[in-house]
Amino acid sequence: MQEKIYTIPVNEAFQSGDECPFCHLEREVEQRIIKYTLGPGASYMEPEVRLATDKEGFCGAHFKKMYDFGNSLGSALIMQTYFVSMFEEMTREMDNFQLPGKRSLFAKKNDQEESSLVRWVREKQSSCYICNKIEYNMERYYSTFFALTKDEEFRSRVEGTKGFCMRHFLRLMEVAKDKVPNDQREWFYTTVFRLMRENMARVKGDLDWFIEKFDYRNASADWKNSRDAVSRTMQKLQGIYPADPPYKSEPR
Ligand SMILES: [Zn+2]
Ligand SMILES: [Zn+2]
């Protein structure tokens, strides 16, 4: 069995009643990492953390979450040293840049190889310290999930969940090929497909009723489970929590 630091949160997530237990785990991990990065422990002042953030940078979504979290000086210091290697690399790429050949009417669009500069910028733009840390943890959660499927109690817990969002369903299917225990293969695919079918239909029903409620004839009818149907549907489709308030550092 895996270490407890992974089994406890996985077990918890599968009892949370969330539209997707992996969204639940991911949100927890993401907040923990944001707090670790910018929070009171000030790990951004530690050389090895700064080395990593200098190298990996941040994606736009996580810059926004860092901004919302609220330690502006921390973010400023992180970005200040990030610039050092960024400038160096950018200058090198531009110095080595070869002017592209003149465009010819007859050349095919992709005839010219992509420049190293374009590859470099793209890599820079898509790399993120927080995304990488989330991915590292999620990998372990998926492994733990598949290890736990050998346990009957856990299996029945899974059967009682509300399924998964599309983003994590994709990941689960990708990982399953190599990780699902041989004797749980049939159980796994049957259960997950049933959960996906039933729960996507349920959420679609909630969404339908949400729309129906705008009909004046239904004005006094009960909302049933539809009040938050829009945010739950967005979660089911993309694995996000649009209704979440920004995650902020606690006032000290
Ligand atoms: Zn999800
Ligand atoms: Zn990111």
Summarize the structure.
The protein has 252 residues and is an all-alpha fold.
Descriptive account of the structure:
By secondary structure, the chain is mainly alpha-helical. The protein contains 11 helices and no strands. α2 packs antiparallel against α7, α7 packs across α9 and α10 packs antiparallel against α11. The two termini are 39 Å apart. Bound molecules: zinc ion (ZN) (2 copies). The site of one zinc ion (ZN) has 8 residues, from α2 and α9.
Integer average pLDDT: 94
Q: What is the tally of beta strands?
A: 0
N-to-C span: 39 Å
Order of helices and strands: HHHHHHHHHHH
- Provide the helix percentage: 55-70%
Shape: globular
Descriptive labels:
252 residues; 11 helices; globular; binds zinc ion
List the helices and strands and how they pair.
Layout: H1 4-13, H2 21-38, H3 47-56, H4 60-69, H5 72-95, H6 116-126, H7 129-148, H8 152-159, H9 166-179, H10 185-212, H11 229-238
The structure holds zinc ion (2 copies).
